[in-house]
């Protein structure tokens, strides 16, 4: 592997955990440098952007959702809904007040099937309210304007005029043509991602991807090995578990040298998603090997690092920090190459070397904390981690 060394920072980076709705997510924040601007580094060709604008009634949209072959609300995403009861109720109130909804964005595939990307939470909320019944439907709560008129009511309890108003509401949808390249489509959705709780990068990838990659990543993060190594991160509310599994898959498929050709994390992960979706590029035998290596890496990480697997763990500090994505990526790929008997014999030497690295090497710490997608940082952390994994030989 080519040795590339980033500039050395003057002090260790701060560790901050991601929070959502005041709830810790168990994942360390990845920071970008102040001068980092990936959009400028990857300009679009305007001729590749093809968008059609269409108008639908909400009744039409709900029918399309119920017809599984027409409009997809990303399976597995509903249970990870991130809006609270009050946000959902106020959206329904806005519709009843005839306040125009922001435009929606759909991705259309070659078969004419559309996937909701921007507006997923809004349409899921409306669908749950209107078509959910007493199972997944909800009652209106905490309204600001309509108050007693509809407070506490479910859809079936609304007077007929209110139901008609909701059904007849018109929405605007911008549909991205299937001829638009996937990386361009992803960048479009990343730019226009709106709403009360914007989707993160993995949630956007999930909405754009096909069933095959979703199933593979879900299976990888639903195993006992993964949950034991990550303190039960499987089924993460914001899909950070699947992003970590995707990072492993991306480097397992293409390695750091493959990353050099792409030179940015988002397109690298988007490329890996497309490969997992294509049996021609990654057949079922390769998927089985990928999942076996992933489970092996999880067992090995638990064996060597215990409760501190994939977390910063400096000398003299024994409290458990949140999981670090970059550490997950490099240690999982590295440990998948070793057998348990070998690691069992050398694990104390590996831990001591790794902890020293995370205490004294500020370049390494920076490479797993700030602008982690930089090529020099990716190569540096892989090189140093590989060296640490050889400790005790």
UniProtKB/TrEMBL annotation:
- Identify the domain of life: Bacteria
Leader peptide range in chain numbering: none
Annotated segments matching region Disordered: 1-43
**What's the short name of a Pfam family annotated to this entry?**
GmrSD_N
Domain GmrSD restriction endonucleases N-terminal positions: 63-206
| Ranges of biased composition (kind: Pro residues) | 1-12
Q: Which residues form a coiled coil?
A: none
Instruction: Show the PANTHER family listed in the entry.
Output: CHROMOSOME 16, WHOLE GENOME SHOTGUN SEQUENCE (PTHR39639), DUF262 DOMAIN-CONTAINING PROTEIN (PTHR39639:SF1)
Q: What is the protein named?
A: DUF262 domain-containing protein
